[in-house]
TrEMBL record:
GO terms for molecular function: hydrolase activity. It comes from the Bacteria. This is Uncharacterized conserved protein, Ntn-hydrolase superfamily. It comes from Xaviernesmea oryzae. Coiled coil: none annotated. InterPro entries: DUF1028, Ntn_hydrolases_N. Keywords: Hydrolase.
Length: 253
């Protein structure tokens, strides 16, 4: 029902998952991530336990290959499941059950994997992976690599049933997401993710930089610093005549 990409930035250790499907709220079911631990995408005839238990096993130090063996061995429904995962060291693995709906399959590369089912064909994941690697080589931010890769997969045919939802999830080194955006029921969900990412860049991601972390449980205490930065960015946008990407009502001081 889906295709997804699971990636780790080798320079920062940050994790990202992007996913799209002709299925409602795919972002609620597929991506499971924990900072400094790993990332898992579980799909096809979804078992959320592959995500939740997969992260627990990663945290225990089990390898992705071992986790695939463990989780599929205990599951009589494994032949219709699909999942792929990566750990904090960049080790990764993928599994596609033999009765997942065609076209179904996966590709695993260094620090990235792509998997999908009910797709137009193998070119969907091939293009997704190719563009991700191309954008990574060009030094693009992780979010943009993932969005560009998914757009390439969509252009190659995507989910053969059509479009409905998509999600982008990014974790840095904390237990909470640095960014999590979903388009749960949309005629062009990947385009909507682009808009949401643009909105996030206007204010949200700057605020995210101030949030408490394990190393700094206080975060940024003086909000005047971030308020000033956001105000300057908004002034620059308005001076350039660029409208906000947001659908929000006007800001009330």
């Amino acid at each position: 029902m889906t295709w997804s990409i699971v990636a780790r930035d080798p320079e920062t250790g940050h994790f990202g998952i992007a996913v799209a499907s002709r299925f409602f709220a795919v972002g609620a079911a597929v991506p499971h991530v924990k900072g400094r631990v790993g990332a898992v995408a579980t799909q096809a005839f979804v078992s959320p336990l592959y995500g939740t238990d997969g992260l627990k096993l990663l945290e225990e130090g089990r390898s992705p290959e071992e986790i695939i063996e463990t989780l599929t061995a205990r599951d009589d429904g494994r032949r219709q499941r699909q999942f792929h995962l990566i750990d904090a060291e960049g080790r990764n693995a993928a599994y596609t059950g033999e009765i997942c709906v065609d076209w179904a399959g996966h590709l695993v590369d260094k620090n990235v994997s792509v998997a999908g089912n009910m797709l137009a064909g193998p070119e969907v994941i091939a293009e997704t992976l190719r563009v991700y690697k191309e954008r990574a080589s060009a030094g693009a931010p992780l979010a943009e690599r993932l969005l560009d890769a998914m757009d390439a997969g969509e252009a190659a045919g995507g989910d053969k049933r059509g479009k409905q939802s998509a999600a982008l999830v990014l974790y840095r080194d904390q237990d909470y997401a640095w960014l999590r955006i979903h388009a749960d029921d949309h005629a062009d969900p990947l385009k909507e993710l682009r808009r949401l990412y643009a909105v996030a860049q206007e204010r949200y991601l700057h605020v995210a930089e101030t949030m408490p972390t394990r190393e700094n449980p206080h975060g940024m205490i003086d909000r005047r610093v971030i308020d000033g930065k956001i105000a300057a960015l908004e002034a620059a946008r308005e001076a350039e005549g660029r409208p906000s990407a947001s659908f929000a009502t006007p800001w009330k001081p």
